[in-house]
Here is the input.
Amino acid sequence: MTVSVSVADLSKSFAQVPALKAINTLFAGGQITGLVGPDGAGKTTLMRLLAGLMTPDTGAITVAGFDTVTQKIQVHEATGYMPQRFGLYEDLSVQENLRLYAALRELPEQQREATFTRLLKFTGLTPFTTRLASRLSGGMKQKLGLACALIARPQVLLLDEPSVGVDPLSRRELWKMVRELSGEGMVVVWSTAYLDEADNCDIVVLLDDGAIAYQGSPQKLSQRLDGRSYLASHVRGDRRQWLVRALETEGVRDGVIQGDSLRLVLSQAQPTSALKELVAAAGGELSAVAPRFEDAYIDLLGGGPGGHSEIAARMEPVADSRSTMVECKGLTKRFGEFVATDNVSFSVARGEILGLLGPNGAGKSTTFKMLCGLLKPSAGEALVAGIDLRRSSSAAKLKLGYMAQKFSLYGLLSVRQNLDFFSGIYGLRGRLRQQRIEEMIEVFELDPYLQSSPDVLPLGFKQRLALACALMHRPDILFLDEPTSGVDPITRREFWTHITGLVNNGVTVLVTTHFMDEAEYCDRVALVNQGQLIALDTPDALKASVATAALPEPTMEEAFIGLIETQNALLQTEALT
Amino acid sequence: MSSGRRFRALVLKESLQVLRDPSALLIAFVMPPLLLFMFAFAVSLDVSHVSIGVVMESDGPYAQSLAAAYAGSSYLDVTPARHRKQLELHLVTGELKALVVIDQEFETAMRDPQRAAKIQVLTDGSFPNSASFTGGYAQGVFNNWLVGQGLQPEGGVILQQRFWFNPEMDSRRVLVPGVIAIVMTIIGTLLTALVVAREWERGTMEAIMSTPARMPEIIFSKLLPYYVLGMLATVACAFLGVQVLGVPLRGSLTALMLVSAVFLVPALGQGLLISTVFKNQFMAAQVAIMSGFLPALLLSGFIFEIQSMPKALQWVTQVIPARYFVDALRTVFLAGDIWPVLLVNMAWLLAVGALFFGLTMKRFRGGLD
Here is the structure.
């Protein structure tokens, strides 16, 4: 008999607000089921219900033949669950975490050593058994979390966004491991915000606003878009501006940048004449391509947010006319013996988007913090808008806007108070201050939420508020540190629409991200690995640099992985000789 | 269903975390002696070496003899003067706590058996507490002096006071048991609230709850290391109190340990309840201080006597575990193993503890709902 998880008429509300509405589905063994949907669609709630950690309001869940309410213990024995937040003890070592979960899951003593050896080898953690979990990189933590969830060979594996904030290399390894497990007949439910992962799943369940909007194979959903996905290839000039214009064109439902091409989803099977004209003007060629899961996903959820950025339309062009806005030479940061940033030099032109990419723990954030004046370099120099950060970092700070990972907003202040606060710390006063605050409220449509805490805002609005706070003083340079980590595709598109608009006004942008599709929006990408800058070029040039006969058209992700692996191999041979 | 192994693994994990967390060890082993010495030396409620001024407006032998008696008192530091004008300013600035004025009439009155001799005592009423016992000291010295002169003080009755349990009226003896209660409240309630809230905050609680580990296993394995920590801190405090500060332990060590062990039940229960309700460290710390530490300090009878509080406040103290603990500890230290007193207090402690644990279990059972 094969294992399965069945969900019948499942409903769950929190304080009268429905989170899940009459869900019916079946998760079968031997395949990976992807759980996708926008933020707040109910993915985590469903995961917790499946793990027997919550009680349904109505309906029932049967996990491997056991009811999640009346047979909780059996359900817990049959499942391995990896919550969104690692669930590891950071002050315990890798080995101690494994021992703890082995005991909790009652793994027989005689099997223990063999299981540990197998899992450590499987996750590549063997060299790090005595390291504290807090000292592991993000990707390694996720692998350890997976190892802990796998200890007693569960029949059902529940993974809640295991790849958030994990670099593409680690993400691919994680995926390979889980694929292997599902081959053994395990039920795997993998919730994710990465639609390329969903595309690789056997089955996807798409939740929207607490209800199932689609379930079935991802290919089947993609097929619905047959004849509506187009590629406008080799556009000349500013491809971001061409995308904005394409999105404003009649009959275009969604679009993204792919190298020097635009990927467009149409409302109908045939491109309109307006679109044809536009593509011709851009010097590109329009051709039908096979739809991706992401195309169908966006279409199903009502299409992309369009290409117009109201805030960019309101902002006057950047007055500073120097050609180089950010420049660093030999930038180095040492923490004791450890070199986090090693002799990094680059410059960013006015109105350019520079993407900083690299594996977890590569030194991206350290480099970033030095450029924002938050960290003092051990050596080298950094000029921001012509100002030396070592001499006058506060003058430079007024020129730059900073948006940190996870939006650093104050949860105990209301939305209005957050705006007041940030306008104040950036030195805005009097009429101008009021004017800018009112403008942000109007442009980002924050009016209904002014009295609420940012914590309770829908994610899209939280992101708008964070951006508003970073923009009120009209910075010439924007630093964005993983601004979209864990954010769903539609909200990310809206974000990039604003960034595109701002850059068009002459704002310079530095951004770190783990989303390879976002790297495509950048003018140039700096690839950082083990503290060193290993490549700096346009996205297309980076892709071309790893192209081989076997892989003539590598994706950004393949380029990333290829370049990192080449350098790691190089460093290893160096260490050996 | 052998849960022994799971339980042992959880206890081991918790113990490793305690040993690796410098703040837990600091709270358990550095803070107790610190508090103990602070309360013993700095917050003494006794008054000795009070600065007073003695104004001798008369120069006669009686006045001289009385002034000498004041100067000779070990409780008083005397500044002599001829005129009260010389010292009044010092009373205003607070350098002197009282003025004793021996006026010109005094000498005459002493020589005349028909008249009662009088002196004037001026005290600084802005510190009512010290004013009243400074006045008392001044009065006491005068009365003793009169008896020494073969005269009877006014009223003709001589009070012979005896203080039971604490004959020297040394407040340190009363404070040390109170400090133990404070330390145990901090370890039991504050530390527990913090560590359990941390598990919720970091998501480890969610991961643990998804394993076959049962609810009571998770809860009690969490508490056991802190129970041991609390008991060790009690032993350390008692040892320091008896050996270094000279506080008598009239009851048995067994009774002391038993009372302390029982107190940890409501203290840990309260910490657990707080962390289960608030689930974040900042809130848990705030609530633990407001509902655990401050009441233990202010409403337990440690510093302020419960009987002299307003009735409504007296009722509030009923649910404050530290109140019963302070009472029981004082009994053990100063009076001995008076079981009727100890048992009543322990019964109350267990009742309050059962309330806290019951509420926690109820909240926990619902899982993440």
About this structure: Chain A has 21 helices and 24 strands. The radius of gyration of chain A is 25 Å.
